[in-house]
From TrEMBL:
Keywords: Membrane, Transmembrane, Transmembrane helix. This is RNase H type-1 domain-containing protein. The keyword Transmembrane helix applies. CDD domains: RNase_H_like. One of its GO terms (molecular function) is RNA-DNA hybrid ribonuclease activity.
Amino acid sequence: MVVNQVRWRPPIYGSYKLNTDTSLDISSQQIGLGMVIQDQDGNMMGSSAQKVKTNSTPKAAEACAILRGLTFAFVTGLLLVLVKSDALEVVNMIKSGKEISAEIGLFVGDIQELLLCNSGCLISYVSKKMNVVAHNISKLALSIDEDCYLLESYPPCVERTIVLISLFLVLWFAFNKKKSHR
């Protein structure tokens, strides 16, 4: 039996990782954007829940979340080295460097510019399993009246997930430390 191992990977010391995701409410034509910025120890350095009224495509919504997450990090002065999204096609469009037409092209071009400004920052795909915190924040965004920006904190709706991730990290680091001393 093959088991897929899902493991959190920290950014390098002194830098940060951004995860983004979206939730769509088709009936109200609203998109919830969720973003979370973590340091090398998994600590929450920033999070944001934002709601956008739009009839955009799901890909454009994911690109919007990435762009707003990058903007949030840039404004707060957090040096990103990694941006993660579970929207594989969008990540590939951004990485391709090609000019893209239509609605999503505007987002992709701006994202590419911000990545260039933040030299050394990479974007990559992450599985939905490893993007739960950003996803839960995006679901929360659909229920709020005003955009929410938190520094060194996170919304209460993701507290249980954060505690479980923290517990996992403590156990993982302890196991690997013990393993390396053998």
